[in-house]
Structure formats: C-alpha cells, structure tokens
Amino acid sequence: MKYVQSHENLDIPDGVTLEIKSRIVKVTGPRGTLSKNLRHIDVTFKKVSDKQVTITVHNGDRKHVAALRTVKSLIANLITGVTVGYKYKMRFVYAHFPINVNIIDSTTSTSGKAVEIRNFLGEKRVRNVPIPKGVEAEISTTQKDELVVFGNSLEEVSQTCADVQQICRVRNKDIRKFLDGIYVSAKGNIVEEL
C-alpha cells in the first residue's frame, strides 16, 4: 500500500543554523560545523521557519516511509553534535596481563594520532587504531584503566570506539572465560547538561 504523503517535523534549537542544498545537510552550531550527504534517500525538505524543517516522502511504500524517521534522527544527531558533542568512555578489562594503552602520533590517520594497545593477553603484537579527524582520545586522569573518546560527529566517535573494541577481540579461546578487552562503559555529551 502506498502512503500518499508522510512527513516529520524537526525543531532547530537556538544558536544552530541548518542549510540544505540538494539533499546535503550542513549544520552549524557553537561547537563547529557538520555535514551529511543524504542524496541516496528520496525525501524532500521544506524550511517552515528558521526554527523548523519538515521532511516529506511522497507516494512512499512502507520501507520508504521508514527511512523518513532515519533522516530525522541523522539530522538530530548532527544538531546534538554541534551543540553539546559526544563523549564515550571505554574501560580496559583484563584478568592477568594489564593492557597498556597510549595515544601516539601516527602518519596513517587523518588527524595524525592513533590509539596504541600493547600487552593484550600478554601478546607481543602492538595494535594501532587510527583516530579520524575531528575526534580526540585521551587516557582518563580521574579513573584507572579508562580511555575517553570525544568529538562532534556521533558516527566518527562511535566508529572509533568500535574499532578499538574490535581490534581487542579474543580469538581461538573460549570467550566466556577470556573476557579481556576494551569496552564502552558510558556514553554522554562533552558539554554536561545542567
């Protein structure tokens, strides 16, 4: 069954400007600028006012209409990123061999930095995860065995954390017994809400 017209409204907070040109969304806020290419999704944008945008799908089937909410969420994530940012905390879990993590200079990453992981399960292999541009990582000073990853783009921050977690997968052993690794322990914002 075709839905004749489906739409979602998106509110734009104060201090944020939203610019849409040929389905490339550019959001500017107090923390910087983020953009997202949405050309692959058939939706129309209509700026109702400076504070509201309507996203519409014409003659869409069920899956096409489901993409509508996805587009709204993607733009909402951009708005959150340029206003308060994203911060993920990762904890090192080990039973015997302590995991050593450092932030090093790297030529392979776009930002020039990488997360270096040593002594995982006592292995001599050194693991490196490049940190993308716009994302920063640091070893926590308040909490032992904690890595803090933060930035404006939710996709890049969460992908960096996923890469760190995936590079520390235990192979050829019973993962119920060997629970070692680096895991996301908390998700939040850089600018803490009062």
What are the main properties of this structure?
194 residues, alpha+beta, Outer Surface Protein A, domain 3, 2 domains, four-stranded antiparallel sheet, three-stranded antiparallel sheet, elongated, Ribosomal_uL6_a/b-dom, Ribosomal_uL6_CS2, rRNA binding, structural constituent of ribosome, ribosomal protein
Molecular structure report:
The chain has 194 residues and is an alpha+beta fold. The protein has two domains: 3-83, Ribosomal protein L6 (Outer Surface Protein A, domain 3, Alpha-Beta Complex); 86-187, Ribosomal protein L6 (Outer Surface Protein A, domain 3, Alpha-Beta Complex). The longest helix has 22 residues, at 62-83. The chain has helices at 62-83, 154-167; strands at residues 3-11, 17-21, 24-29, 32-37, 44-49, 52-60, 86-93, 100-105, 113-118, 127-131, 135-139, 146-151, 181-188. The mean pLDDT is 93. The strands form four sheets. Strands 11-12-7-13 form a four-stranded antiparallel β-sheet, with helices on one face. The chain is 19% helix and 44% strand.
Total number of distinct structural domains = 2
Largest sheet: 4 strands, antiparallel
Q: How many strands?
A: 13
Q: Structural class from helices and strands? A: alpha+beta
Poorly predicted regions are none
Order of helices and strands: EEEEEEHEEEEEEHE
Shape: elongated
Give the mean pLDDT: 93
CATH topology of the largest domain: Outer Surface Protein A, domain 3
How many individual helices? 2
Fourth CATH level, the homologous superfamily of the largest domain = Ribosomal protein L6
Distance between the termini: 46 Å
**Lateral strand order in the biggest sheet:** 11-12-7-13
Compute the CA-based radius of gyration. Answer: 20 Å
Q: What is the class of the largest domain in the CATH system?
A: Alpha Beta
Helix content: 10-25%
Strand content: 35-45%
How does CATH name the architecture of the largest domain?
Alpha-Beta Complex
